[in-house]
Amino acid sequence: xGNNILKYLFIVIVVGxxxxxxxxxxxxxxxxxxxxxxxxxxxxTIQTDxxxxxxxxxxxxxxxxxxxxxxxxxxxxxxxxxTLNESYKMQYCLAEEIxxxxxxxxxxxxxxxxxxxxxxxLTANDIRFTIDTILKGGINTVYxxxxxxxxxxxxIDPYTFKLVLSEPVEFFEYNLTFPxxxxxxxxxxxxxxxxxxxxxxxxxxxxIANVDSxxxxxxxxxxxxxxxxxxxxKEISIHLYGSASELYNAFKNxxxxxxxxxxxxxxxxxxxxxxxxxxxxxxxxxxxxxxxxSEILSDTAVRKAISKIIDKNNVIASxxxxxxxxxxxxxxxxxxxxxxxxxxxxxxxxxxxxLINSGWEYKNNKWRKNMDGKNIELAFxxxxxxxxxxxxxxxxxxxxxxxxxxxxxxxxxxxxETYQTSLENKNFDVMLTGIECGFSPSLAxxxxxxxxxxYSNPQVAEMMNIISNTSDENVLYDNYxxxxxxxxxxxxxxxxxxxxxxxxxxxxxxxxxxPNAFNIYGNIEKWYRQ
Length: 530
What we know:
By secondary structure, this protein is α+β, with helices and mostly antiparallel strands. The chain folds into three domains: 43-77 and 204-274 and 507-530, Periplasmic binding protein-like II (D-Maltodextrin-Binding Protein, domain 2); 83-183, Dipeptide-binding Protein, Domain 1 (Dipeptide-binding Protein, domain 1, Alpha-Beta Complex), CATH 3.90.76.10; 282-500, Dipeptide-binding Protein, domain 3 (Roll). It is 30% helix and 25% strand. The chain is built from 14 helices and 22 strands. α8 (312-320) crosses α10 (389-405). The radius of gyration is 29 Å and the shape is globular. It starts with a helix and ends with a strand. 35% of the residues are buried.
């Protein structure tokens, strides 16, 4: 009798343990499903191959390629010392630690155990080889500007090295985003001409498996060092096309999953159904630089009034159209240190009151002020590059808005040489210009000595000094906030607009698709087809 009870209890316990195990397995499976796939998908319906595209392919060597499609795709095959997240914040990648030892020196420690896709280990020799190739290889690479101030490379041990700059560079760590290649793989080769460039190796989550004239096949790197980012996709096919029209036709026919679009009227090529579209802010930023040392623009009240008159939406609608958005500052493309909204809404009444409070008088449709016994009219010139029709139209629009308010404004069109000289010598009242914003949060262009607007403020100079010499995020947040307050109060610049880039992707593509100007494939490990 006792033995039967024990047998019964044993069976109950075993059944319970089995049931609990099945329950846990289902729970784990449910968690994986919820975290990695769309709610409308199931594990049985997802497809683990992706299909990308390159138009006018040149080479898969990321240091040699001048093709933007290749440069974007390269980020999933090759890796840098540091990368940037979706808010352009620096994150360690192949580097495990970076220590700034003085204003020109950085000691960098590599992750140990990182393997290239041929099984060889990443060491400081590979970093030296890549840097030497970029700087001394006689090649035309987009990454040479990242290292233009590098003076010396010192290897400390196989996993540690020191970089010494010729002069201080604010946020220099953000320049370390160039792809690292293997010294061993290229040893004894003519880097620019070797056949090894057909399928170069990196340390990324995918590796090149096969190359032909129409398709480059990538497969998952099973020995990828970052197991937290192992991709769902097992294969990626990169289809090669000779023209944009061929590429768009392939996308329309469902042969490609995602495309980085270069034309605004893409609907004319592929229609408007069967795909999704994401528009994101580009790096190209246009603004007005107000010469804070010129006779009229030295008056802060005038600069503030101008900022409250210009209707930026009107500028875009009248002169630019689709593909542009209002932009109030260089960092507002999504940078993590754009900590405050710097939008200034047009308000003519408020602008007028600012001028009146500063001693200006509105009479006979003009603003005047008595200065040292002389009546001075509020008049100035907007300078613009005469070879840029779009900016000329913008300058004329802004002139009309300001003239309707009573300011006497003219537009001066400059040839290329005079335009550059005027910028360098600060020979202008207002300059309509633009830059390609960097990925770092540096504001040296706008606030350091010799800045475009001839702007000088001791408090701002102190903030910039603190920013240049700290990596403490709380200190950075605090000083950027203070700097933005000064910017709004003193208005040395007026941000206008930036253009946008677009990706389109088929509705069958799922995952966390969040492109930005640094990386449109930033979350590709979560992508799949359904």
